[in-house]
């Protein structure tokens, strides 16, 4: 349809191309690795999406932990410069108030932080009409009571919450598991390398003649690790992913139920992040010894395993361990920052469904978050 100029003085200022578009108003919290890619991806795909579908994607807020940029008409590609120049300090009530006073509809809150405090705001956002999308895993791994209350609130307010990137970054994993489970397929075990950063670290460390600290530094620089890389190295991040999958299967597990092998030497566990980063070289000797003692033709893999009796709410075993596997096995053959998920089910028997691909990285994760935004935009 082309733009039409009509005689009516009000209508003649309206671009008929946009008249039927459903405007989706998005507030993005966290514009680090993932968040900044997401804002850029939305802004650069906006026109194409508007042409192909009846959607007008409007980012009306972007914030980090210190400042926010609020623009009713939406951010443009200079958003970061504008935010640096005119971003203001804020609290989350300001965003809710802004959405209300500007009568913004079809609201989506996107959480690209890794912050435990921020998820406490989810309920208020839902209460005020926002759908939720998060790459942040924390809301799905707090105690079961929080998990269930949030879902109750979402149901009562008819809002959606999508978090496909919580496990396997941009890979279509949670959706697949949800569908298998909902359709009555008995999932009997899920096992694999769930961490993109640890996959990259051990693939590289096993294959190349480099110190552990230099490989870890590369993983940090590539944006594969959590904001504090110790969350990856201590196993918490993988543990969270395992728990999220367990809960998708309606298992009643808490984070404390997971048996996790912590890879950080004891005296580096509770120092500040700054001190940890300054002392990375202390990881070199312990990991070099492990490597030297390894059996020929094996490689290290940090493996998560959801097993036990998954037909009982409290029958599951959740383990996360560093293991040596043959180089030519499915896990041993992983490359780069790939993750791999083996999903065993009753119908598929001993041959699991396998989902494999980039398990970390800002661009792929942002694309996954974008996918969740579009899924919600299509819903009602
Ligand atoms: N990187 C990856 O490959 C993947 C990441 N994820 C998840 O994505 C999330 C983001 O990761 P990543 O982008 O790498 O992390 P970064 O550290 O690069 O970015 C985090 C952002 O969150 C902001 N932030 C922190 N606390 C708050 C708060 N209370 N309110 C508003 N903003 C806040 C930070 O702001 P400030 O600078 O002011 O602190 C920063 O902009 C994490 O939860 C991670 O687990 C999921 C899948 C893959
Ligand atoms: N730090 C995480 C990023 C994705 O969740 C990982 O390494 O897998």
UniProtKB/TrEMBL annotation:
<keyword id="KW-0486">Methionine biosynthesis</keyword>
<dbReference type="Pfam" id="PF03447">
    <property type="entry name" value="NAD_binding_3"/>
</dbReference>
<keyword id="KW-0521">NADP</keyword>
<dbReference type="GO" id="GO:0009088">
    <property type="term" value="P:threonine biosynthetic process"/>
</dbReference>
<dbReference type="GO" id="GO:0004412">
    <property type="term" value="F:homoserine dehydrogenase activity"/>
</dbReference>
<dbReference type="InterPro" id="IPR036291">
    <property type="entry name" value="NAD(P)-bd_dom_sf"/>
</dbReference>
<dbReference type="GO" id="GO:0009086">
    <property type="term" value="P:methionine biosynthetic process"/>
</dbReference>
<dbReference type="GO" id="GO:0009090">
    <property type="term" value="P:homoserine biosynthetic process"/>
</dbReference>
<comment type="pathway">
    <text>Amino-acid biosynthesis; L-threonine biosynthesis; L-threonine from L-aspartate: step 3/5.</text>
</comment>
<keyword id="KW-0028">Amino-acid biosynthesis</keyword>
<dbReference type="InterPro" id="IPR011147">
    <property type="entry name" value="Bifunc_Aspkin/hSer_DH"/>
</dbReference>
<dbReference type="GO" id="GO:0050661">
    <property type="term" value="F:NADP binding"/>
</dbReference>
<comment type="pathway">
    <text>Amino-acid biosynthesis; L-methionine biosynthesis via de novo pathway; L-homoserine from L-aspartate: step 3/3.</text>
</comment>
<feature type="domain" description="Homoserine dehydrogenase catalytic">
    <location>
        <begin position="172"/>
        <end position="374"/>
    </location>
</feature>
<dbReference type="Pfam" id="PF00742">
    <property type="entry name" value="Homoserine_dh"/>
</dbReference>
<feature type="domain" description="Aspartate/homoserine dehydrogenase NAD-binding">
    <location>
        <begin position="30"/>
        <end position="164"/>
    </location>
</feature>
<comment type="similarity">
    <text>Belongs to the homoserine dehydrogenase family.</text>
</comment>
<dbReference type="GO" id="GO:0009089">
    <property type="term" value="P:lysine biosynthetic process via diaminopimelate"/>
</dbReference>
<dbReference type="InterPro" id="IPR005106">
    <property type="entry name" value="Asp/hSer_DH_NAD-bd"/>
</dbReference>
<protein>
    <recommendedName>
        <fullName>Homoserine dehydrogenase</fullName>
        <ecNumber>1.1.1.3</ecNumber>
    </recommendedName>
</protein>
<keyword id="KW-0791">Threonine biosynthesis</keyword>
<keyword id="KW-0560">Oxidoreductase</keyword>
<dbReference type="InterPro" id="IPR001342">
    <property type="entry name" value="HDH_cat"/>
</dbReference>
<dbReference type="InterPro" id="IPR019811">
    <property type="entry name" value="HDH_CS"/>
</dbReference>
